[in-house]
Specification:
two-stranded parallel sheet, transmembrane, membrane, two-stranded antiparallel sheet, mainly alpha, disordered C terminus
């Protein structure tokens, strides 16, 4: 029996197995609704690539086997991620600006237009542009049509819109056309390079690429145009640079992640506690001083970019990025998704999906003790893998107890936990890290 098991492990690698499962799952659930010609194209080329991968995998003596496998995985990334997304971009360019794209990407494009006109995107009203598309209505996860609150509030954070400005400007200057998902494609490609660089073992490099690029949870969100890849890239880059002990630039990139989307915020305490614990038994005041000297770009960047929009129009900014999400406004985002809010709505604790409920109470009751517990865990095992796990768990708890918990949140969490597993940081305590 032992010989048989060892023979199976030698004959078929775990990366080939996961590639097969993820590819077929993605094809079955995501591409079955396509017209026959398109569906057959994806199935034919995917199964052909799988067959070639298996042949390379089972052959013992193959020069550059790992390179061939990486090429095939990248081919899958192009086939299952880029081609459907580029097809949607092409269809949008032919049919109209409001077709085949996610509403968040649309609103970002409109916000960039306002910013280039010298107008505050957090103050402006979007009903004249986005209202035309949506007819002023939003269909909730419960199938109820309501006035779309996105025409009144711009929820994207400052770095996301500032980063988009030069791309929008130059694309329109040279091509007279722009799609926000161009940035997401670039972030995806850059993430692939970082992901391959993180693990030390060749097979883990392959597995990390497979779990990221052929993730059946993430692919529909990416193809649909959600912006989670944007914040994930900055989070991933910051942690990668911290692993390389480039603390200053890492802290700057972390600031850009925090300024990209709210989902990066729960990483901050674990990031700084990682550096704190790395300083060892250094006395309190010198430790604070040294950590600030090495991470001041984080604080300066946040104060600068958040400060600009707070000074510009504090009320509009706070309403759009805080109160709109918490349900504190008449035009707040409605309750939806799969979390606690839906359970309370189904149990009639909350009467209407537009009603206010103090979700900050369960978030605090669960999140604060969890934060303390996770910090204690990190103190015992202070590695970047643990930092990422803690980040994912705290984010999971916060989202689950919040006003809405959508499918793309689950996809983003899958990327976080996958990254934690493959980060492979076995560094020893080093007081010189920061």
């Amino acid at each position: 029996m032992l010989e048989k098991n060892s023979f199976i492990k030698k004959s078929l690698s775990i990366d080939a197995l996961f590639l097969f499962i993820f590819t077929v799952t993605t094809l079955y659930y995501l591409f079955e609704t396509l017209p026959l010609t398109k569906m057959s194209f994806f199935w034919f080329f995917s199964l052909t690539l799988l067959f070639v991968y298996f042949l390379i995998d089972i052959k013992e003596k193959v020069n550059n086997k790992n390179l061939y496998k990486v090429i095939i995985i990248i081919a899958f990334a192009i086939l299952l991620n880029f081609l459907p997304l580029i097809n949607n971009i092409f269809l949008r360019s032919k049919i109209g600006p409001f077709a085949f794209t996610h509403d968040a990407a649309l609103q970002m494009e409109e916000g960039v237009k306002f910013l280039l006109q010298g107008k505050n995107p957090y103050k402006e009203d979007y009903s004249s542009s986005l209202g035309v598309l949506w007819g002023g209505e939003l269909v909730t996860s419960l199938g109820i049509s309501i006035p779309n609150p996105a025409i009144n509030h711009f929820v994207q954070l400052p770095w996301h819109i500032i980063f988009s400005v030069p791309f929008y400007f130059f694309c329109n200057l040279f091509f007279y056309w722009y799609d926000q998902r161009i940035i997401y494609i670039l972030c995806y490609i850059a993430s692939l390079f970082i992901i391959y660089s993180i693990p030390s073992k060749k097979q883990n490099k392959l597995l990390f690429l497979i779990f990221f690029s052929i993730n059946p949870l993430f692919i529909p969100c990416f193809v649909g145009g959600t912006n989670d890849i944007f914040v994930f890239f900055w989070v991933l880059l910051s942690l990668f640079l911290l692993k390389q002990r480039k603390t200053r630039i890492s802290s700057l990139i972390l600031a850009l992640a925090v300024l990209s989307k709210h989902s990066a915020w729960p990483l901050v305490p674990f990031y700084f506690f990682y550096i704190w614990f790395q300083r060892g038994k250094e006395s309190f005041i010198p430790k604070i001083k040294n950590i600030f000297i090495k991470t001041y770009p984080f604080w300066v960047t946040n104060i600068l970019l958040f400060g600009i929009f707070l000074i510009w129009d504090c009320r509009s900014f706070v309403e759009d990025i805080f109160l709109y999400l918490s349900g504190s406004l008449p035009t707040s985002f409605p309750i939806g998704g799969f979390g606690l809010s839906i359970l309370l709505l189904a149990g009639q604790v909350i009467q209407n999906h537009r009603d206010y409920f103090p979700f900050w109470i369960p978030e605090l009751l669960i999140g604060f003790p969890l934060l303390i517990f996770l910090i204690k865990i990190q103190q015992k095992r202070n590695t970047l893998s643990q930092v990422i796990v803690n980040y994912g768990l705290l984010l999971f708890a916060f989202w689950f107890c919040s006003r809405f918990f959508h499918s793309n949140y689950i996809a983003y969490l899958s990327l976080v936990f996958i990254t934690a597993y493959f980060f492979d940081d076995q560094e020893k305590i080093d007081e010189n890290i920061c």
